[in-house]
Records
---
Amino acid sequence: MSFSGDVKEELSKQLPKARHCQIAELGAIVGMCGNVEGNSDEGYKITIQTENARLARKCFTLIKKTFKIITEIEIENGSGQFKGRRFIIRISSPEDALNVLQAFKEIGEDGNYRPPEGLVPKVLVLNDCCRRAFLRGAFMAGGSMSDPEKSYHLEFICDKSGRADQLVEQMKAFGIDAKVVERKNHYIAYIKEGTQIIDLLNVMEAFVALMQMENVRILKDMRNNVNRQVNCETANLNKTVSAAVKQIEDIKFLINCGELDKMPEHLKEMAHLRLEHPESSLKELGEMCDPKVGKSGVNHRLKKLSETAENIRG
């Protein structure tokens, strides 16, 4: 099972205790993958379709628990390009469907169905507990996320911009900075930062997935820090080796042209130490001098030798 599937499996076991939270979660599911048909004269029907068996079971449970309605789950086997199974939940009784739509605050004073601009009317998500349930239902019905071992990306796929905007608005209520992008006639509300995704998992109460992702994130950060340190040390080592090679070339040049013997004793001492210890650091060379010299002093003497060689070459 994918990491996204693990998250949905965990969320499917989370059932809100308060009825208003149950309505908010079910409303998000119906908004994401449901359809309302009919009119006030003939009555309404609600159909929910999903390829996710966990979502179908949870939807069945929420309808039964919240509205005391017993529905049946139909299973359609795929055909053509679609090979999987589709689970269909129908609320066919006009009376039951009307009760559900009234609870969703989607029936106007005239008795007609009024679809919200978002997934649900704003009045259903005024409390934080309802927002949590709403986001949980929306993710189960239309959300997905990548494996955190590979990348950080979580998204909700919506067919209308107003629905994606409502998801972003509800996430911002918890300090989560989500964005919307249009892709192939759909609107995607997405998050790409690891800490923000962890915050959303916490909001939706997917605590097991949260801990798994936190562990992955910590290991990746440690790995990245080690890589940065190794790269930095390698770069410094390469720089030191390159400098030592150049210094040795300059000293050999001064010896070959007879200039080193004309130079002060402290420079001749440094030249011979560098030739005898090409791998030593500036600090180690300073410890070998008599008397001892600091790193800046060693650097100054080596620089003086190189400048002299360059001047002669010039």
---
Amino acid sequence: MKTSDKYSYFMKNNETVVNCMGIMSGTSLDGLDIALIRTNAIDKFELKQFYTYEYNKSLKQSINKFIQNRISIKFVSKLITEFNVKAIKTFMSDFNIKKNDIDVIGVHGQTIFHNPKEKWTWQLCDGKSIANMINIPVISNFRYRDVCLGGEGAPLVGVWHKALLNKDRDSIYPSVFLNIGGVSNITYIKNKYDIPYSFDIGIGNGPIDSTVAEYFNIPFDKDGIIGLKGKANIDIINNILSHTWFNHPPPKSLDKYHFDCILKSSLKNLSTIDKVATLSKLISMQLKKSLSFFSKYPERLYISGGGSKNLCILKYIKEDFNNILMPLKKDWNPDAIEAQAFAYLASKSLKGLPYTWDRITGIQGESSGGILDFPD
């Protein structure tokens, strides 16, 4: 079967099972998560392999510098693209994956800027170059179509969270997934059949990482050790949560740096350890505020993302949600959830199936998205 015929068949047959690789790089800039799944793009999926490739210090510095000054876009895009290619090749070599074993690669790219009100979301990476260098079709730019249609463009993992929960025999509804990355987002799944709600709820690891980097010259608060030494200031948190954005109902999304000025002003008189503790507690309290938008309180709460390994963040979440907090299922793999999500979204994009709706991003109707690049 010719390549063009093969992909035409995939797009026209919803029952066809495809092998999709997902590449995810979050706003925390910790590296690339790569997952390979086999899926029909709807209700059948299996995680085959997963691994994380950490960004080196030089690449992180180059990305952070570009986010601040927007200088040398071709240079930084080339660095990110080349790192993606190197990681993909290493992944395929390490797990003995042949080129013909992969039907499509979903590449998220590195988020540089996100402002849906200006119809602008920017994930830096060259999908066409990756397709040529790996010689496998690549789908990238997952968010842009939704933003152009008036949607938030983020978060996009809601349909994947629902697919995971629906596949579990012991699932209970409503359930909530909390993902703590550079920002925090949730998916509220009311029942097995309806489209879920999915939206950013506020800060994630981003401000904590920035604080410990500034005062301790370390990239993040490993295991929440610094935060556990401090005391959270509830009055300051309540003042932050009075900001208009937190009272705005979903759908909504955030740029990683949206609250930087507010946080800097609010926390300026606290000790460093109390700043970290307060930011950690804020994640739990903004979750509580976000759940107030729903008439029915969730029966289960699942946590994923880098913040799920921070013991200070978890301590505060347990204080507020211990009665519903549940460990992730073993076959879900908390580290792999977002990479699997973009593999899953790539399969939907390939088949032209929707992955955003009004409840997820605020668009009218439903939409698929992404740009498919074939190797030359």
---
Amino acid sequence: MLALTECLAFSGGAANPLASLYLPPVLFAALLSPGLFAWGLSLLSMLAYALLFAWHLPWPLQGSDAAYAFSLHLVGMWLTFALSALLITSFVSWLARQLAAREAALAAARETQLRDEQLLAVGMQAAGAAHSLSTPINTLSLLVDDMLQQYAADANLQEDLRLMRAQLGSCAQALSRLKQGIAQSDTAQPLFATLAQQLSGWRSLRPDVQLQWQAAAGPDPQVRLDAAFWPAFFNLINNAAEAGGGALTVTAALSGNWLQLDIINPVGCLSAAQLQRAGLAPLTSDKPAGMGLGVMLSHATLARLNGTLTLDNRPEGGVHACVRLPLRLEE
């Protein structure tokens, strides 16, 4: 502002059409620093402009040609307008981009907060359910053990009772893990062999499902997988198995330090609303006993592990879930 005042004072003062350049700095101050600074700069510009009427050097002209002076004044007004327009347009455009980026960040933060609140509510309900289910599971386990001894002669019943005891044991282990929390494993394990082992254990619990597993060709890298990954992974596997009519395909690929898992169920499809809200809120489940929480929980867990989950409908039918997860490869 002071530099502009000095230049105008040596070139005609208030008669110089470039005096309109006082406006852009005042506008920028009002946008960037509203308050005392903007008001102070505005008052300073008005005072400086007023002083130019009294203290200035004459406008240098070639002779006393009034037409030339008027033409020069018009050119100066155009230059002032052009420069002001360029400055204001560039600055306001930059400011609008910054505001749009901030709004997008706020929207993402609100969605994350909503998801975290939903997860907290689910966690509290899960803790209460774990406490409530412990006693019934222990009671059923004792009853099954008693029936195994009481009906030892019935071979068919013995097989069913052993299956019941195995299923109750799995429930008890799941509740124990839920009570104790997820522990981080400090040992590196072969990636594809570990995935195959976990899926084999899942097959024993779901013998009614035909699961096709395909690992990437080549060496099996040593990795450290966060224990929180497995519940998120098996949530998706269970959803695909129950929605896919008893069949699903799981393939694994490695790209640099990223693991990609493709989970495909051959039947069914998701609506546009489900695809849009997948992972941000509980989905409307089409399963008889589904609550729609599995995808949301998996999405939240993978996001915490810096991974991603995307869902899409396959052109030939079915739903494709793609999991991408960064890995910590061991040498």
---
Amino acid sequence: MSDLILANATLVLPDETRRGAVRVVNGHIAEISDGTGVPVGAVDCEGDLIAPGLIELHTDNLERHIQPRPKVDWPHASAIVAHDAELAGVGITTVFDAMRVGSIPSGKASYGAYARGLASELLDLRARGALRISHFLHLRAEVCSATLSAELDAFGPDDRVRIVSLMDHTPGQRQFRDLTKLAAYVKGKHSMTDADFADHVAQLKDLRACFGAEHEAAAVAAAARFGAVLASHDDTTAAQVATSAGYGIRLAEFPTTLEAATACRAQGIAVMMGAPNLIRGGSHSGNVAAGDLAQAGLLDILSSDYVPSALLSSALRLGEIWGDCARGLATVTAAPAAATGLTDRGRIAPGLRADLIRIRMIDATPVVRATFVQGVRVA
């Protein structure tokens, strides 16, 4: 690899921003210097921000590319490549692709297994050099299902599974405490009658009663087998957080209440919230607002969830809320790296991977002008 110097930039360092340059050698950060000078052969960044590449821990974006319309199954290789390119274009250099494991093979709202096959296709494209950024797997273990244990058994330590999240979508609790909101969503998506919805709720509760304990134990064991971080999802009460802590969970995805987020802080569990929640000013499902948790000092990590471009915008918005750009951007760089044990990236520091992005502000909108992975421009 050739050397790269990004000069006359506003560097987003771990604890501050300052004008300077970063020199890259063989894909790693070799040197950081101060000043506005532009050495011969360097890229003049004209004062643009140079930040670490963004790290995305939970995104449904790949599913959107695979099913761009209801009942459309787009060719997977094409969808994976397009997803990868979209993330690179908005400054994401490391992604944990979220894939559901655990299916319901019968009923009005049935759905089948897909994660093992899709993961194999993605990993094959990665091995063949078709992808621009780093990809890991995030298995969303659906406790309220019929097949979770068997689907987890299809994965092993070589599959780059770095997060396993415990998902429990049983009606009447967590994300679906309000059955009226669940009814509006499910009945619209699956064209259900009131009777169909009642049967669906009963089916899910039966599945939870039959398999819940077994599936939770299987997910915890699988995370240990993979060497993956174990995450909770939609914790609502302090009691649920205590259960999460007992499993060894150290990452909470989208706690739904201030009570749960506060309990996470007391248990040393990092809190991750959705970037769209912050950008929109609240949760689309009526749960706690990410901005409120940020103001309370209870927000550690942001995830783009279903809008990849929201990751950078929301981190900069947090920087405005906190009055600290470096702290805001750390929620999408250093903090997710630390939460998942990625010690080689997430900060601009000598010796780390040169995963970097160049950002220019156009009024209040951040525009990614270049994305580098290990010092090579990929977007």
